[in-house]
Give the backbone structure.
Amino acid sequence: MDLRHHGVRYVAECGDDSSDGVSWESPMRSVAAAVQSLPEAGGSRQRRHYGRVEIGDGLFDEVGPIEANQNISYVGRGLGTTDGEGTVIRSVADSHLFAPSSEFDDYAHNVVFKDLVLDGNKAEHPGPYDLVRLYRGGFGCAMYNVSFRNAPRYGLKLLDGAVNFVGYNLTGLRCEEAFFHLNLVWRANLTNIAFYGTQVDNCGAAPFLFRNEASGDANTVLISGLETEATVAGQHHTVIETDSEGANNPIWFTIENVVAFIAGVHAQDAVSVVHETSPVRSRYVLINVHGSGYPKAFQSENIAGYVSSTNHELLTEVA
């Protein structure tokens, strides 16, 4: 094998999983087979395949979960504007689409997704399944130009923390419960999580869900340039929902340049753009938060933390 391609596999609609996948001239057909053919490293609890999987234009039906352990990149050809353009990876199984291996018990460092459409196919495979699950967040995970569609539950779920995670130009469409779910438990750490330029439509009653029950370090979350639209019914609708009850360390949220819309017929379900469901232990800075159909920019049952707001149409109020 050419050592220049040792850590790279190529996947194409015309490919065959019996091929070596080391070039576009001999591509494999499935993403799952390609990652399993990459070199391995680590002991039993840290076992992972590492390298890069390049995926061509077209539709790729996959049986998940596809490995998302550590030091792996999935790179497509973009979201496409017409049939046949862009890279679509669609779930055809009752499972998560990308997730850590069952035996993996390490940090998800350096997992990257770029220029992809991920489709959960929830009409055919309903259930508590996510498009991407990353375990213990790790360092340097990133997503660039990725669309999360039709997730049976969450588009992106970070389990037990994250460090230096960034999402650029992400979209969520018709994810059943939420576009993004962060769950911090036990001694999980959260440091420098950022989303830039996100578009989310009809992704549950709260497209962004933050649950902080951790005793580990908690630092900053930045959500900058967010557009959302909700045209489906849902009780107590909000855009960003946070719950920090039980957490020892607050999270600093900066939420800026938000445009949120909820259809008039469902406006009675709207609560606020940002909703803290427990007594506030986190810290919030809201800048340029605008909404149509939402009565408030921020709401909480009891302010115990710090809230600051600047230049938005909706008043920062306490319920």
In short: The first helix runs from residue 31 to 36.
